[in-house]
Amino acid sequence: MQTLILARHGESEYSARGLLNGDISVAVGLTEEGEEQARAFGRVLGHTQIDLCVTTELGRTHRTAELALAGRDVPFETWADLNDPRAGSYEGRHLDDYRGWAWSAGSAEPTPGGGESRVDIVARYTRAYRALLERPEATILAVLHALPIAYLLAAVDGAAPVARMDRPIEYATAYPVDAELLRAGLAVLEAWRAAPGW
Question: Could you tell me the pTM of the whole model?
């Protein structure tokens, strides 16, 4: 891989209401605005060569990529390691409810009700990004969720994960990262995983 283009999905029925969804069995589609954001993203991509598109198991990412790449012959792959976190008992609840727990919980503490810890979340994100880095395709589009993008972009800037991730990630917007920056970001994330900071 030479270039990874990260993009968050378009506005979803849940994200428009501030609700959490990390459960792949719960179907959450895009809003009309989210679908238009995806089409507009496709226009921004224009004639950019895309050799592979990776999405998550949650349908909003695949639908965004499908609309953005309509009419183009780009292979798709679904990568579960890049899914939004499993929210446990916070599934379907407002993001602020989850934040109340997350901002005070340790990084190795699983989300109540069968969710994931932040250490486990970062572990699977770094595993996936490392695998993308080794792919033979030159330019990969990864349509994901806000958190995996925020973790990586912060790490590219030299910042390790923190309990309160406040970096805004816009809907259906390109965040390109070249291979050298991806390696640097992965080094930060992997060092934090070895010795979590909170």
Answer: 0.97
